[in-house]
């Protein structure tokens, strides 16, 4: 019967097409995998719970869409709702957070320790603040912690704000400069643009042959430090694979005055290293970065999962 012949032809065609598609995909996947190069291994992992304050070292971490848990979830603002950074307040480098007993605990030189809960306090007021070119709403952590920062920095009316997991992040696509380089789901809380910042040890080694002062990787405030052999390997790859995760480079990171603050002393280098040396060999060609020197990469994440110190890092 004609009808049966037609349907069996359709079934055969569909089967052949499906088989061809699967075969193409498998070949593509094999080629993609074989195009990934081993560039190094994870040396260290860090979170910086409060923007511009000291970091916390981790042995392992889950990679979420919006960064490691507790990374850049608090921020200090002044009486004009402008956020503070190491650029203007270098001694923030000596504010050391820890996450213990369901609290964010802080210590700083000549200050009593203080703590805030890891959640929005009941009745907390919310505020919309601007981080570079995009806005976010966050919650006031209260007068006690605000006054603590005011006393430490000798600046009146400071506030600490918290962004819980349950309220919206900032999206890369909304950024007026870099939005075109992001994808629709790229997001973070208080990080500058993207949820993960990766740096590479061989690039630091090159820098330290040129800088008048030994620069520590902490000056760049990375989340993931990759131990590498080839300097500036990040110039050649867009995707970075660690275990089952895939990080996608959105841009090379342009560096500012913040890097001149010594993370161990909270003092800004009068010789302006490492910026001065980096300007001699690492200036960006992207006009959006206005001749700033480049170090490390800002990445979003395409595949989530756990990673740990020692994991191999592949790139393509
Ligand atoms: C972003 O927040 C600031 C206040 O910090 C406000 O002046 C501005 O209008 C907001 N922008 C948008 C697009 O909502
Ligand atoms: C704190 O700031 C005020 C002015 O804003 C200044 O007069 C005072 O000397 C400062 N105190 C310290 C300890 O730096």
Automatic annotation (TrEMBL):
InterPro entries for this protein: MoCF_Sase_C, MOCOS_middle, Pyrv_Knase-like_insert_dom_sf
MOSC domain: residues covered: 166-316
Annotated keywords: Membrane, Transmembrane, Transmembrane helix
A Pfam short name: MOSC
Molecular function GO terms recorded: catalytic activity; molybdenum ion binding; pyridoxal phosphate binding
Protein name per the record: MOSC domain-containing protein
Transmembrane segments: 6-28
Xref: PANTHER family: MITOCHONDRIAL AMIDOXIME REDUCING COMPONENT 1, MOLYBDOPTERIN COFACTOR SULFURASE MOSC
Annotated PROSITE patterns: MOSC (PS51340)
């Amino acid at each position: 019967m004609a009808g049966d012949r037609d349907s069996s032809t359709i079934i055969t065609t569909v089967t052949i097409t499906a088989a061809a598609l699967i075969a193409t995909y498998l070949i593509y996947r094999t080629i993609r995998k074989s195009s990934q190069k081993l560039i190094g291994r994870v040396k260290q992992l860090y979170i910086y719970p409060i923007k511009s304050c000291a970091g916390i070292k981790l042995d392992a971490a889950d990679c979420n869409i919006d960064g490691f848990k507790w990374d850049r979830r608090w921020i200090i603002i002044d009486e004009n709702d402008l956020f503070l950074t190491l650029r203007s307040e270098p001694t923030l480098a000596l504010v050391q957070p820890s996450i213990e007993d369901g609290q964010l605990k802080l210590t700083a030189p000549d200050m009593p320790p203080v703590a805030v809960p890891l959640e929005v306090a009941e009745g907390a007021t919310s505020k919309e603040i601007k981080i570079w070119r995009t806005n976010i709403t966050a919650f006031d952590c209260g007068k006690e912690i605000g006054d603590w920062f005011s006393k430490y920095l000798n600046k009146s009316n400071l506030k600490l704000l918290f962004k819980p997991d349950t309220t919206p992040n900032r999206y890369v696509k909304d950024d007026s400069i870099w939005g075109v380089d992001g994808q629709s789901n790229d997001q973070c809380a208080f990080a500058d643009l993207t949820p993960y910042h990766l740096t590479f040890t061989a690039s630091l080694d090159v820098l330290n042959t040129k800088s008048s002062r030994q620069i520590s990787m902490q000056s760049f405030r990375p989340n993931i430090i990759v131990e590498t052999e080839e300097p500036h390997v990040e110039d050649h790859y867009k995707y970075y694979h660690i275990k089952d995760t895939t990080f996608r480079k959105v841009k090379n990171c342009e560096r500012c005055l913040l890097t001149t603050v010594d993370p161990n002393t909270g003092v800004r280098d009068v010789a302006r290293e490492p910026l001065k040396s980096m300007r001699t060999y690492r200036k960006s060609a992207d006009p959006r970065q206005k001749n700033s020197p480049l170090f490390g990469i800002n990445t979003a994440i395409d595949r989530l999962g756990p990673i740990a110190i020692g994991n191999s890092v592949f790139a393509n």
